[in-house]
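Quick board copy: two proteins, each given as sequence then tokens.
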Amino acid sequence: MDRTILDELSLNDSLTKKELAKNLGTIHQNLTRSIKRLQEQQLISFATSEVDMRQTHIKITHQGMDINNKINHSINKIWAELLNNIAQPDIQAFTNVLEVLPKQASQ
């Protein structure tokens, strides 16, 4: 969950815990431990909303962004190596299966 949180925050300037949970397809209570852990590691930070002082927004730090970029680079490198000698139509078929799996699991 930690990496997924970092990845989502890297795509957005800042999110509330509720927005982050919605984007990840979960409830905000499920994020509490991961958010605390990421904050302790200084990979995310909190800022009070300028519009609504009751809201707290979660932001990825520069350190968090660096780590997330390294993780994504490693993942992309591994995928490139795994798919290196596989024909494009086969890769597309594999991608299609991966896209269907979450839908099947949620039924």
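And the next:
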Amino acid sequence: MGSPRSRGGEAVAARKPTSKTVSFGAEVTRLREEAGLNRTELAARAAVTRSYISQVESGRTKCRKDFAERLDKALDSGTALVDAWDEVLRSSSYPKFFAEFPEPRRPLTRCARSRPGLSTGSSRPSRTRE
């Protein structure tokens, strides 16, 4: 592996491209060219550097899912890149339990009510002194 570089204040190690990241990058390139954009224009739309777009397109970095979503929005490509990202994740070296972890159905909107007579954080009835 190469030496770490800095991106947005965060160190990023240079990665060796894999067949899946190269395939994902090729899809980004295809959609970018189909949209008639150069890397600088796509970078501006996706709020990243041209260099980062280059790294993604060449397969030298695995982007996060939220970035794939931003690219889909910037390229008006529906969910093409999110779907491709999901394929990269399924075939990556992450543990199986990570790849198969379901998306949350809905956010937690309230906490469970405590039952009368229970102390906070305890499953035993509270005792009051008489």
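Board note added afterward: Confidence is low (pLDDT under 50) at residues 1-13.
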